[in-house]
Amino acid sequence: MAGIKAGKWTITEEEFERQFAEATKRGEEAMKTEIRAREARYDRKSNRLIIELMNGATHIVPCELIQGLRDADPKEISAVELGPRGASLHWEKLDQDFTVGGLVRGVFGTKKWMEQLKRGRRRVKSKARTTTARKSGRESAIKANNGGRKTPASSTGKRGRKAA
Fold this sequence. Notes:
NE0471 N-terminal domain-like; alpha+beta
C-alpha cells in the first residue's frame, strides 16, 4: 500500500482519510460554536475597532488596548482584514493578527502586553484613589478648623481663628 508523505512522516491513505474526516468534523463543530465576525472596521473619530459578530452583536474595542495598534497610523488600522471564516482579524502592514474570540474575551495581546495593561490600570486607579483621599482629607481638615463649615472662612488667620 502506497503511503502519503507529509514532511518527514509517511502515512497510509487510510490513515490520511481518517485524519481528514476527523479534522473536518472538528472544523464543522468549531463553525457552530466559535465567535465569528461578519464585519470589522475602524472608527477614526473614537479610535475604536468595531466588530460586527455573526450573531448580530457588536463588540467595540479601544485601539489603544490592542497590541500593535496603540501607536499605529489610523490609515494602517483602517486596513483591517477579516479572516476567511470570520474568526480572525489581520493587519498586513502592521503584521498583526488577532482571533475575534480572543478580542471579545479581552485578550488584546501577549501575556506580557496584558500584564502591562493591568499594571497601567492599577496605577490609574491608585492615583485616583490617592487624589480622592487627599481631597477628602483636606475637606475634613478645613471643616475641623472652621467649626464644621466646608469652605475656609476668608477672615481666618493661620490657625483658623478670626484675625484681630
